[in-house]
Amino acid sequence: MPSVPKWLGDTLEKLSSKYYHAVTVTDVTYLNESLKKVRFEGDIKSIAFTPGQVVEFRVTDTDYRHYTPSVFDTKQKACEVIFYLHGRGIGSMWAEALEEGQQLKLIGPGGKLAYRSEFPVHLVFGDETSVGLAHCIANECERSGSQFKGLLEFAPENISWEIGTDDRTTVVRASMDSPAKRALEVLESWQDIYGDKVGFYLTGRAKSIQRVRGYLLEKGVPRKHIQTEPYWAEGKRGL
């Protein structure tokens, strides 16, 4: 639901109030100049959340945006989201303006991705918009005793980012003209990921997801092992 008329948004909030949860911004931390970690606390104790799912915020009267929590702790009644401040849209401007004390409505959770405990290895592919998901899946792997691998393609100016998943995440340079080019080279070198033990979470740029998914299928990875959720695509708003 990227955009709806204001009257429809107001109506949905009234009719679907059980999916709207009152939260307050209790902490703001900048991991670097473009990654902002925000902690929300509030009415989420009864929410059934599966790592990998997204939550939604109404960022203007007419616009909504989805974000993947890096942490979702119902016992602490808190979740955290790592926002990528790229400065190119309504969602980014909304996230940049978030500050402690603000009261908001968190919607959801939902989405197509969900951590699948049957796999002993979990591989997250994505880009700057996928840092929160990488943290979320890595945390769940640590809790459950599974192995985590990350593969993120960043713009050249972001390669030096410290993103907090240590040596479990490989970062490569993104190419706008050749989506996932360097990522596919890395995947080719990871010969141990093509068996039945790995669950794949493909996120970020739609064109890169298509390339990686096609490559994995060519390698014989079963379709049911691959989950996809594009976070952005050229020419489209509010995925």
From TrEMBL:
SUPFAM superfamilies given in the database record: Riboflavin synthase domain-like
FAD-binding FR-type domain sequence ranges: 18-116
Family, similarity comment: Belongs to the SIP oxidoreductase family.
PANTHER family: FERRIC REDUCTASE, NADPH-DEPENDENT, NADPH-DEPENDENT FERRIC-CHELATE REDUCTASE
The protein's name: FAD-binding FR-type domain-containing protein
Source species taxonomy: Bacteria, Pseudomonadati, Bacteroidota, Sphingobacteriia, Sphingobacteriales
